[in-house]
Specification:
The complex is a heterodimer.
Chain A (H helix, E strand, L loop, with lengths): L6 E5 L3 H13 L3 E5 L2 H10 L6 E5 L7 H11 L4 E6 L4 H9 L4 E4 L4 H21 L19 H13 L6 E4 L6 H10 L8 E5 L5 H9 L16 H4 L4 E5 L6 H13 L1 E3 L6 E3 L3 E6 L3 H6 L5 H7 L2 E4 L10 H16 L5 E2 L1 H9 L5 H15 L4 E2 L19 H15 L4 H8 L3 H11 L5
Chain B lengths: L2 E6 L8 H12 L3 E3 L10 E2 L4 E3 H11 L4 E8 L3 E2 L8 E3 L5 E5 L14 H19 L18 H5 L7 H7 L9
Parallel strand pairs in B: 1-2, 1-5, 4-6, 5-8
Antiparallel strand pairs in B: 3-4, 7-8
Classes of the chains: A alpha/beta, B alpha/beta.
Chain lengths: 448, 181
C-alpha cells in the first residue's frame, strides 16, 4: 500500500483527545496540529492557507461549535475535508453536518481500523483533487517492490505488469514455487489506482476448507460458541484494494463456488450473519498448478476459471534465466549486508560459478535463502563456496532445457577449457569476439 | 549498547516471555533482560471502560525502568486503550524509552477461535518489536512486510514480518555490531 501523508488539524476542547490523535497521526507520519477551540483552529488554518488536507472537528465545543466552525472552514478553504467528531448521542447532528458539506463523521471513541480507513479515504480524495489540478504527479510515488532481472523473459514480464496494472482486470500469475508471484502481484497493485488501499494475500493452499471459509468471509458475533466479537474476513480487509489469492488451484470445490459468487456480485454475508456486505476489490490470483488440466479433471470450476482467467502473466523458472543470477546475488548480498550490518561486498568468482550451475528447483526464494545463510556464516568482504550449503557438484547439476540454458552451459565449458582465451573460444564457438563478449555479459559469466 | 528490559505486568507471566525476549534480542540486536512482574497497574484501570489506559502504563514503566536499561517494554494481558480509541494493541513513546503491548487482543481465543500459542507468540513478538521501533523514533512504514507497517486489525499483524525492512533496520541497528548480544 502506498502511504499517503497529509496535514491534519485536530479541533477538540478535550486535551486527552487532542494529544491522543496528535500522537496517533504523527506515528503515521502526518503533519498534525491541534486547536482547543474554533478561534485557534481558524487562526491555524489562516496561517497556512491551502496547505491543509483534513480537519477533524468536535461537534460539541464551548463557544463556536463544530457545525459553525465547519461553515467557517469551508468559507476559508473549500478544499479542506472536514470530519466531524461526535459523541454517540449526537449522531443526528453529525448527519446534519454531512448535509452541510462535511466529508464524514466518527463517533467517540473511534475504532482504530475505521479511523485509519477514513483518514486514508480522505487523503486519497485530496490527492485526486491535487492530481486533477496538476499540483502533484504520480511519478514521485513509490513504484512498488523491486523485481530483479534483465533477461528477455523478465523484460516481457515487466511489460505485461505495466500493461495490466492500470486496468482493473483480474490477473492470473503462473509460475513455479519461489519464482516471485507475490512480488508481481504487489507490483501490479503498486501501479494500480488501488495502490492507496491494502493488498491482502490469502494463501488458499495452506488452509483447510473450513478455516479458509472463515478467513475469507469472517464471522458475526455469536456465530459460534466463544465468538464474542465480529471478525472481518480477508474479503472485507481488501475493500478498496487488491485481493491476492495465492495457490487458487488448490481450493475445495465448495469454496470455489462461494468465491465465484462473491467475484460475480461483490457481495457476501459473514459466517453466522445475515447482513449483506458489499465489497470492492481487484482480484489477482497465482497458481503453480496447471489450471487447464484441473479443469479437465473436474477439480476446478469452469465458471471460476473463465471469471479469473482474464489476463495471464507467466513467470520463468530461475534455471530459465540464469543470466539474472549475478544480479540477484548482488541484490540479496546488499539487502542482507544492510540488515545484518555486515560489510560483505559480494561473492567470489568460484562461488558465483557454482551458483550459476545450481539447478535451483526452489527458484529465487531458494537463492535468497542460500545467500542469507551464507551471509550469516561467511566473513567480509566476499562470500566463498564453502559459505553456501548447497549440494553443488559442478557439471552434475541439471541444465535447463531452454536454448538459452544450453547455450550458457556450452559457452561456460568452452571458456573454461580454453582458460578464458576469448579469441580461441570465439573461434571454437563459431562466433566473433564481440558476440562472445556480449554473451558473457548477458549470462553474467565470470572467470573462476 | 542500550539494553532492553522486558517487564510483564501481573497476569502476563504465563506467556512464553523467555522465548519472546530471545526473539526480540535477535530482532533488535540488543541485549534483552526479562524482569520480575510489575504489580501496580491498577492505577491505570478505568472502570467506565473496563480497560487500562496505556498512557498511564507507559508512565509506570518509565518510572520502573532499571538504570541499566535504555528502554523498557511492558507486557500486559489486559485490554488497553488511549482516550480517543476503542482499544490499542500497544503504545510507545515516540523516540522515548517506554513501550507497552497487550496479549489480550492478539490471542485467537479473544475472537472465539481455537487457541494458537505459536501464532500468539509471533504476534506478541511482532507488536513488541513494532512498539520498540517507535521508541527508536521510527514512524509507520509503507513496506507491507516491515514490522513497522501499521496494523489496526489483528490479522493485519499476521501479514507482516517480525523484522524491520532494510530502511527501518538501518535506523535501529546498533553502531557497533561487533559487540552483539
Amino acid at each position: 500500500m502506498v502511504e499517503l501523508h497529509g496535514r491534519i488539524l485536530v479541533v477538540d476542547d478535550e486535551q486527552s483527545v487532542r494529544e491522543s490523535l496528535r500522537e496517533w497521526f504523527t506515528k503515521d507520519d502526518h503533519e498534525v496540529e491541534t486547536a482547543a477551540d474554533a478561534q485557534e483552529a481558524l487562526a491555524k488554518l489562516q496561517n497556512r492557507p491551502g496547505e491543509w488536507d483534513v480537519a477533524l472537528v468536535d461537534i460539541k465545543m464551548p463557544g463556536m461549535d463544530g457545525m459553525e466552525l465547519q461553515r467557517h472552514i469551508r468559507a476559508q478553504d473549500p478544499n479542506v475535508l472536514v470530519i466531524m467528531i461526535t459523541a454517540y448521542a449526537a449522531v443526528d447532528t453529525a448527519v446534519s453536518a454531512l448535509k452541510a458539506g462535511a466529508y464524514d463523521y466518527v463517533t467517540k471513541p473511534f475504532d482504530p481500523d475505521l479511523l485509519s480507513q477514513l483518514i486514508r479515504a480522505a487523503l486519497v480524495e485530496r490527492r485526486a483533487q491535487r492530481e486533477a489540478r496538476g499540483v502533484v504527479k504520480r511519478s514521485h510515488e513509490d513504484p512498488g517492490p523491486e523485481i530483479i532481472g534483465r533477461s528477455h523473459a523478465m523484460q516481457e514480464v515487466y511489460e505485461l505488469i505495466q500493461t495490466v496494472a492500470p486496468t482493473d482486470s483480474t490477473v492470473v500469475i503462473r509460475g513455479e514455487s519461489g519464482t516471485g508471484k507475490e512480488l508481481v502481484a504487489r507490483a501490479i497493485h503498486a501501479r494500480s489506482k488501488r495502490r492507496y488501499f491494502p493488498l491482502i494475500p490469502v494463501n488458499c493452499g495452506a488452509l483447510a476448507e473450513s478455516i479458509l471459509e472463515s478467513e475469507l468471509f469472517g464471522h458475526e458475533r455469536g456465530a459460534f460458541t466463544g465468538a464474542h466479537y465480529r471478525r472481518k474476513g480477508k474479503l472485507e480487509m481488501a475493500h478498496g484494494g487488491t485481493l491476492f489469492l495465492d495457490e487458487i488451484g488448490n481450493i475445495a470445490r465448495k469454496t470455489q463456488m462461494d468465491l465465484l459468487r462473491v467475484l460475480e456480485t461483490k457481495q457476501f454475508t459473514r459466517l453466522g450473519g445475515s447482513e449483506v456486505v458489499t465489497v470492492d476489490f481487484r482480484v489477482v490470483c497465482a497458481t503453480n498448478r496447471n489450471l487447464e488440466r484441473a479443469l479437465q479433471e473436474g477439480d476446478f470450476l469452469e465458471e471460476l476459471y473463465y471469471r479469473i482467467n482474464v489476463f495471464t502473466i507467466t513467470l520463468p523458472a530461475l534455471r530459465e534465466r540464469r543470466g539474472d543470477i549475478p544480479l540477484l546475488v548482488d541484490h540479496f548480498v546488499g539487502k542482507y549486508a544492510a540488515v545484518m550490518s555486515k560489510p560483505v561486498e559480494g561473492v567470489t568468482p568460484e562461488a558465483l560459478d557454482r551458483l550459476m550451475r545450481h539447478p535451483w528447483p526452489g527458484n529465487v526464494r531458494e537463492l535468497e535463502n542460500a545467500v542469507e545463510r551464507a551471509m550469516v556464516v561467511g566473513e567480509p568482504p566476499l562470500l566463498r563456496v564453502r559459505d553456501f550449503s548447497l549440494r553443488l557438484n559442478g557439471g552434475a547439476a541439471h541444465v535447463g532445457d531452454s536454448l538459452e540454458d544450453v547455450e550458457l552451459e556450452h559457452i561456460r565449458r568452452v571458456l573454461h577449457e580454453q582458460d578464458w582465451d576469448i579469441t580461441r573460444s570465439a573461434q571454437l564457438l563459431g562466433i566473433n569476439r564481440v558476440t562472445l563478449y556480449n554473451k558473457i555479459k548477458k549470462y553474467g559469466l565470470r572467470r573462476a | 549498547m542500550g539494553a532492553i528490559c522486558v517487564m510483564p505486568f501481573a497476569g502476563a507471566e504465563t506467556l512464553a516471555l523467555d522465548a519472546v525476549a530471545r526473539r526480540v534480542a535477535l530482532l533488535t540486536s540488543r541485549p534483552v533482560h526479562l524482569t520480575e512482574p510489575l504489580r501496580c497497574a491498577e492505577s491505570a484501570y478505568d472502570p467506565s471502560r473496563d480497560q487500562y489506559n496505556s498512557r498511564h502504563l507507559l508512565q509506570l514503566l518509565h518510572e520502573a525502568r532499571p538504570t541499566s536499561a535504555e528502554r523498557i517494554v511492558g507486557i500486559a494481558s489486559v485490554d488497553l486503550f488511549i482516550p480517543v480509541l476503542t482499544f490499542v494493541f500497544g503504545e510507545a513513546q515516540l523516540d522515548g524509552s517506554a513501550a507497552v503491548v497487550s496479549s489480550l487482543r492478539l490471542d485467537n481465543r479473544f475472537y472465539g477461535l481455537p487457541a494458537d500459542t505459536a501464532r500468539l507468540e509471533t504476534r506478541l513478538v511482532t507488536e513488541v518489536v513494532h512498539e520498540l521501533g517507535h521508541t527508536f523514533g521510527l514512524r509507520h512504514c509503507g513496506a507491507s512486510r516491515c514490522v513497522m507497517n501499521r496494523s489496526t486489525y489483528v490479522e493485519e499483524i499476521d501479514l507482516k514480518d517480525e523484522s524491520f525492512c532494510v530502511q527501518c533496520a538501518s535506523k535501529v541497528q546498533p553502531t557497533d555490531p561487533a559487540r552483539g548480544l
